[in-house]
Each structure stands twice: as structure tokens, then as C-alpha cells.
């Protein structure tokens, strides 16, 4: 044994000879890898392998030679990185020579060349020599597919070394014969190659080098002119790709033809894709010409190319019938968007023309088209920044543009006004273009437009948006010309409202509020608008005023929008928080004080809707606070609620103490909603003072039977805090507290429904963060589905569990929400729900169906789809349920199932047809629509299954054609149309 | 590329801008979402029924009749598919209470041999999509076709329409125009 091992070590080549023999003569595949591994590990050299192969390479039998070369090629493929330059030269000479050999040998030879084409040590010139040999000795186009692929790999490998030199045309010939790809792989293709893959790979080769340009560009031009849509698209996209590597030199001779083809396509096409690709190609061409580096004596083709475009397009801009106006403008804009130079060249020619056309046309809709084009060109200017102020090309047109925009803003046509507003915003975004005089005028117009009547809603919204955008850029103009006017308007509104309620004044008041929040886009403006809004809120709540709920809500909504705008800037965010929150709390506390004479207006602030609006303001003003600032705020607000510490409120002389948790007055307790809004929006890292006490008070209040809205707010607040607490003893204690309270409350007594609400919210808080206790609580909740009293409420509770809240437990409010919680809830609980359904007594079965419906409804359809077949029998049963929620959810589950799994569904066609038709006359519009959509989806089932039902269905669907609701009729029309086509010729 | 909202429609912009205001989906109004409010059948609704034919059907129609493709590619007269097929809403007259619909369509060229077929497709689409109570009248926009009268007469003749739909070949072509899947 030892002797044998020693022998092998001395003469490793002995082993090599054996391996070679096994591979060549023994037809075993394994030795190739072994040899390659040995070469890699340095046991022997490539030269030794060649020597060992010696006799088989000279064997008279071509199969044996092929096998020998195959071994060498396989070794090279694995070891090409180890080759020395000298070895590469010899091997290439050998392989080139072998190309002359028998055709059986060629595949292995090509493999070897492919290995060598990967070599880094390839001496210059050899690539050319290899390609020459290949093209000389082998007719590539008639090789089997595998070998053609090898040739292309060799070419591609060489391409990366840019050495194709003298063979460009041959290379181009062998690659371009596939263009454009019209091969569609069979659906069962084992390689999974898509047509798109082929297109992209071929494009990568064709567009890999500028040297192909002289051959490729004529081909592309020819194919763009073809009748076949896919050929057009592929050619335009390939041209687009080529422009990335081409330069002026390559394009020069073909520019006129390329432009002619692109122009023709864009002018005439019916396909949006051809248009888009044509425009993209023009864009790249122009960009390519713009960036080419020129020799000193060369002509700049960009100018002549653009002049060509202008010449062919500009007269269309002036034609009175405006037929080709848009395609021309799109072409010009595609070119102008390519570079600053192109943009200048084109706009300096086109703008004067368009300005003139605007005045020539008198109809609003024609003017609008022209202004829209101008807008398009102006937008392109935003892409380029100009260093030198005087060079900015728009400066010369500024006055004309402004007067035109102002003309549009006063035009009776809403559509023209709308474009005018958008143009104004774009002009304003150009640095240093507008003068202070222009701005004053613009602000005046925007003020007027912000108060437009109901029928020009879209204009008003656009004006508000433009005001916001411009105010961020020109805060001084807006502070001095707009905010004072709005303040005046607000005062007038207060007086008007005090006098009496007139709807027009009401809406003016509302618009004023919206305008104030819209312009609060700059910190300096917020410092003016926020005090105005708060002051206004105070005024509205003074004893003398008769403030309606809707007015107070409107103010809160404005505040909310200002808060949203402040979120972007930490300083404004803190300013808003510390200004608005104490104010809102002071007003609310004031309103909650018991009063001798019951004055109605003060109580407006305690209404549920108003509180909800304030909750949303407080939440928005809190979520973006930095943790240390939030900590300052929490140190004042929690003591306010727990200890009645009112010292930080701006107006704090109240007739009695504020004790929402101890006091019996329901007014004070309702304000727990505001506490909830604040503490549930804090960053997780902020520590909440007196947390233990707070949680206990909240649990206590949540099960207090007197006022449902405050107990719900307490439950939500408790859940919101629970969700954010880190795992640990404290959390476990709070959970135990809640569970005990729930269990005590659920036993027969006055506060079962409160205990249920607490259970629901705590469950939600835990489900969202995948807390282990959540499954136990969900189970408890499921058990309540068969409770005669709480069953229906419990069923609806599943909707809450699966949906996103807006005020607590939100991601924005830093709650811990795992992304897949719905999927997880589904997997964990649906089997139990189904089981519960089967076990339940007849009268509570609908509760299970409804609970299940809520879960299925909220789940993303792709997740749901694979699970649905197992639920199919249940879903079919659910179609007979009389509850609208169940019906709707079931239909929306079945509809995608019909599309995705028609074979399975075919088995139930009888039930499906009759149930769907039945539901298509449901009293609920949504159910009718869903049922008709399912009828439509049914047509995806195999036609032979459906044909027996066709006459019956067509007759039945005539009825919903005359439904009183248009949305239902629309579905009926498309469903019936499809049924008509079933089994009919030509469909 | 150009401008902002509402301009995604592409080619409609070529034509008179009034048309493109109408293009795109009909926005759903609050009234339409209210279960209680009945919405009457109006011209836009008929137009939409028609348009879904134009959008889905034209391509197959034109592939089927190559001479029409030539007419749209004529560089002297660049017309778009949409322009070829726009049945303007103004040419749709409908009265829900009286249960009547009148649709006028404009053939692409005065000698368009497909006029009867296009008319037939419109007619069939309306028959399939409107409640039975409606009396429908499909005719050529006056003065836009050489044999306007003859075509109108055929389209108005119930028996002929029924007979035409018995003809497998004709039905096949009509169905192709109406198939949303093509």
C-alpha cells in the first residue's frame, strides 16, 4: 500500500494517463472534472494534459479525436485563468488548425476556443485570428443551435476586449440575421427563456459597439418602416440603446433618414407604444449629438439636426386646424429635453411662434392647447440650471409669458384657467424670473381663484396647490400680499357667522380656512397663519358666537393641514406643537367644565366629530417630534390628565379642577381621547411619566359603563401604549391587569360590551406585534362569536383586527406593526373559524361567516388565492347567507378564483350561475355589481361547460341592463357582451 | 412627456381639444354611488358602450381589412385610428323616458365598403347592451357616405339585421369587432 502511494506521488502523470483513457476510450464523464481539479491544484500542467492526450488527438477515428479535444476543452473551460500567454498562443494555433477537422470534432473545438476567448492573457491580434479562422472554416449559420450559441459567446467575449476590428461586417452578419426576434418559445420550454430575454440579449450584442453602426442603422431604419408592430418597437428601442455608445461620427450619415422614420411613426401611429418609443429614440439621438466631443474643424451636427426638426414641425404648430399640433409638440419636446443646448435652440425658436399663435386664436380651447404646449417647453427648462443669470433663455420672454398667463387666469374657460395656474407655478419655479410686481399680480390672481365657486372646484384646488408651491419660494410676497387679506376675510367671516348662517358665507369662510392652510408651506408663513387660525378658534368658542360643529371641524382640518406641512421641518414641527396643543387642550378643558347655565356653543368642542378632528390635529403634530422635545411635552400633558396640573395652559382660570379620571362629569372624561391622540403618537423611546398609574386609570375607565365614547377612547389608549412597551415584566403585569378586567367584565352584568371593546383593542395591539398572548386572546374573541348577545359585534370585530386604524396603532404613530400580520392572522385562525362554523348552531353560523369574510376581505388576493380551494365549500354555502357583508366578501373571493382556477370552479357551475344571477338583483348596489363581475368572470370557464346555460344567462342579464344605477348597468353590459360571444364564431 | 393631468390619452390630443376632454374614464359621481338615486341612461353612457367597441375592436377590424390600414397610413392624410372611429357624443341622442336611442356614425371615407358592417356592429352592440324597451336607430351621419340611404335602410330593417346575424361569416366579423379579448 505504502509503496503504491509513493509510486503515485512520484509519477502523478501515471494517474493522468489513466483518467484520460477512461474519458476518451471508456466514455466516462467523471474524469474530466478530476483532471481539471488536478490541474487547478497544480498536480500537473496543461501541457502534460496535452501530452497525455497525444495519441487520441491523432487517432484516425474522428469520434475519438472529438472526445480527446472535448476533454482538453473542458479542462480549459475550468482552468483558463491559469494559462500563461505562451500557452494560450500555442493552444490557439492548435485549435484554429483543428477547425479544419471533421464536422464531428467542431463542437469540441468551438468549446475550447470559447474557453480561450475568456483568457485574460490573450495576446493582441489573436482574437482577430480566431474569428478569421472560424469564419473561414465553418459556416456558422448552418451549425446546430448549441454550437451557434458557442460562436456567439466567443464573439461576445471578444467584444468585451474590443478587438473585432476587421471582422465587423461578418460579426454583424451572423448576429443581425436574428433581428428582429420573432421567435416565441413554446409555453413548456424547459429553459424558461422568454421572448423578451432573447430580444434583450440580441440588443445587447447589436448595441455593444459603435463599429456596427454603418450596418446596423440602415437595418433599423428598414425595420422601423416595416408593417409589423413588434419590429418597429424593437428597432426603435435598439436605436435608443445604440445612442448610448454612438457618437456624432456614427450617426452623421443616417440622421436625415432616422429623423424621417421617427417623424413618420409619431405622426401616424395608432399605437401609444410606438409613439413613446419613437420619442424616446429621438431624445437619445439628440442627447448623443449633444454630448459628442467635436474636433476643432468638425461641423456641429446638433444644430443642423435640430433645425431639421424645427423645419418639419413648426408649421404644424401654426396650422389653423391644429391637426398635428400635439405630435409636433411632442417631437420638439423630446428633442428639447435632451440637453440644455437643445432646449435653448428649440425653445428660442418655438416660444415666439407659440406666443403669437396664442393671440391669433380666439377660442378658449385652442388657446388652452397652445398654452399646454408652452407649459411643456417651460417644464423642460427646469431640468437645466444656468450659472449665469443673464444667459437664462427665458428672461427675454418673461413679460410676454406673464401677460399671457394672466390672460388665461381671467378667461371664462375653467380648462384654460387650469393650465394658466399650472404655467404660473412653473414660471415661479424658475429662479429669479418673476419680478416683485409680477408676484404681486400673481398673488392677487391666486387669492381670487381660491374663492371660486363650487363648479370650478378643480381650478380652486389647483390654485391652492400653486399658492403652496409658490409661497415656499416667495414667502415675503405671500406674507405681505395674501396673508393680511385672508386675515381680514376671516374677521369678516366671524362677524357674518355671528349674524346668521348663510350658506354662501359659510363656504367663503371654509375657503378662507383652506387658503390659509394651503400657503403655510414656509416656516415664516406658519408663524403668521397658525396664530390666526388659533385666534379664530378661540373667537368661535367665545360665549357670544354660535359656532356650528362643521365650522369648528373646518378649523381643525385646516390646522391639521398646517401640521402636516410642518412635519417636514423639525423647527416648524416643534413650533406648531408647542403653540397649538396647549391652546387646543385649554379650549377643550374649558368646554368640559360643568356650568351653571347650559350654554350650547361651548359643548360643540365635546362632540364626537369635533373631538375626532382635534385628535387628528394632535396626532399629526406629535408623530414627527424628536424624542427629547416629545419628552418635554409629555412631562406636562400626562400630569394635566392625572393630577389636573393646568399650569401650562394659556388660559387657565377654570371654575373647578380638571380630573378626567376621578371626576364623575362625563364631559371631562371625554377628553381622554385627546390624551390618547398625544401619547399614542409618541416615538417608542419616549418614556411616559407615571405610566403605572396611567395604565390602571385607563383600564378602569375603559370598563366604566356610563359613556361609550370615553370608555372606547380609554381602551384604545391602553392598547396603543401596550403595543409600544418592550417585552418584560411590566408589560406582562399590564396584560394580566387587562385580562382580569376583561374576564370580570364579560361575565353577565352591565359592562359586557365595554369589556368586549377592551378585549378587542388589546387583542389588536398584540396581533400587530406578534405577541405570544395574541393567539389566546383571539381564541377568546372567536368564542364570543357564538354568544347570543355579543356574537354580531364580535364578528364585526374581525374587521377592526384586520384593518388599519387612523388614530392609534398606526405605523406613522410609531406603533409596532409587523408587515405580515394579516397573513399570519389568516394562517393561525382561519382553520379554527371554519371548524367553529361547522360546529356552531344554525342561528350563530352567520357570525362565523361574517368574521371569516372580514379576514378574507382584507387579505391581499395573491396570498389568498392558493388557500381558497380549501375554503370553496364554505364560500359556496356563504353565497346563500342573507348578510350583505358576507355576500360581498364571498363574491370578491370567488371572482379571482374563477379567473385563476376555472377547472375547479367548473364542477360547481350550476350553483354558481344560479346564485350569481340571484344576487344580481340584491337590494345592495355593491352586491349587484360584484355578482355581475362574477357573471363576467364565469365566462373564463371552459366554453362547453357554459354553453348549456347561455340562453338562460343572456335572458336573465337583460334585467340588470335596465338597473336604476349606472355602475350596475356598466357591469351588466360587459358581462352580457361576453356571454353572447361564448361559442359564437369569431370570438 | 408633455403637460400634466389628463394628457395620458396620447393620440386624442391631435384632434380638436374638445374631444380629449371627454376621453378617459367617466368619473364616478357621488350620485352614482348613492344607492337611492336613480341614474338615467344618457348619451355618454351609450357613447361609452360604443367606445368600448372602438377601443377593443378596431385593431382586429383593421387587421381584417388591409385596405383600411392603408388609408390610415397615407402620409398625405395622416389620420389616427381613434379619429377614424370617433362616434362623437353629440351624434348620440338618447331619451331614457321615451326609450329611444339614435346613433349616427361617420364612415372613414365616402366610399367605405365597410360602412354596413360598422353599422351592423354598432347595432348588435346596442342590442346586446341596452334594455329591450329601447327602440334603436343606427344611421350614417348625413352627407358622409355615397350610399348613405341604402346602408341606412339595411340597418333599419330588422329582418335583414337578423338574417345578417344568421350568416356565420358576418357574425364572425361582427363578433371580432365586439370581442374585448382581441
TrEMBL record, chain A:
GO process terms (BP): DNA repair; iron-sulfur cluster assembly; protein maturation
Any Pfam family the entry gives: MMS19_C
UniProt keyword terms in alphabetical order: Cytoplasm, Cytoskeleton, DNA damage, DNA repair, Nucleus, Repeat
Gene3D superfamilies linked to this entry: Leucine-rich Repeat Variant (1.25.10.10)
Family that this chain belongs to: Belongs to the MET18/MMS19 family.
Assembly description: Component of the CIA complex. In the CIA complex, interacts directly with CIAO2B and CIAO3. Component of the MMXD complex, composed of CIAO1, ERCC2, CIAO2B, MMS19 and SLC25A5. Interacts with CIAO2B; the interaction is direct. Interacts with ERCC2/XPD; the interaction is direct. Interacts with ERCC3/XPB and NCOA3/RAC3. Interacts with RTEL1; the interaction mediates the association of RTEL1 with the CIA complex. Interacts with BRIP1.
Entry-linked PANTHER family: DNA REPAIR/TRANSCRIPTION PROTEIN MET18/MMS19, MMS19 NUCLEOTIDE EXCISION REPAIR PROTEIN HOMOLOG
Biological role stated in the UniProt entry: Key component of the cytosolic iron-sulfur protein assembly (CIA) complex, a multiprotein complex that mediates the incorporation of iron-sulfur cluster into apoproteins specifically involved in DNA metabolism and genomic integrity. In the CIA complex, MMS19 acts as an adapter between early-acting CIA components and a subset of cellular target iron-sulfur proteins.
Protein name: MMS19 nucleotide excision repair protein
UniProt lineage: Eukaryota, Metazoa, Chordata, Craniata, Vertebrata
TrEMBL record, chain B:
Gene3D superfamilies per UniProt: 6.10.250.1280, Fe-S cluster assembly (FSCA)
One protein family per Pfam: FeS_assembly_P
Source organism superkingdom: Eukaryota
UniProt KW Ion transport keyword: no
GO biological-process terms attached to the record: chromosome segregation; protein maturation
All residue ranges annotated as the MIP18 family-like domain in the record: 69-137
UniProt key word Nuclease: no
Keyword line: Chromosome partition
Any one of the GO CC terms: cytosolic [4Fe-4S] assembly targeting complex
Function: Component of the cytosolic iron-sulfur protein assembly (CIA) complex, a multiprotein complex that mediates the incorporation of iron-sulfur cluster into extramitochondrial Fe/S proteins. As a CIA complex component and in collaboration with CIAO1 and MMS19, binds to and facilitates the assembly of most cytosolic-nuclear Fe/S proteins. As part of the mitotic spindle-associated MMXD complex it plays a role in chromosome segregation, probably by facilitating iron-sulfur cluster assembly into ERCC2/XPD.
Assigned protein family: Belongs to the MIP18 family.
PANTHER family, per the entry: CYTOSOLIC IRON-SULFUR ASSEMBLY COMPONENT 2B, CYTOSOLIC IRON-SULFUR ASSEMBLY COMPONENT 2B-RELATED
Self-association and partners: Component of the CIA complex. Component of the MMXD complex, which includes CIAO1, ERCC2, CIAO2B, MMS19 and SLC25A5. Interacts with CIAO1, ERCC2 and MMS19; the interactions are direct. Interacts with KIF4A; the interaction facilitates the transfer of Fe-S clusters to KIF4A to ensure proper localization of KIF4A to the mitotic machinery. Interacts with CCDC117; the interaction is direct.
Protein name, as recorded: Cytosolic iron-sulfur assembly component 2B
Taxonomic source organism: Ailuropoda melanoleuca
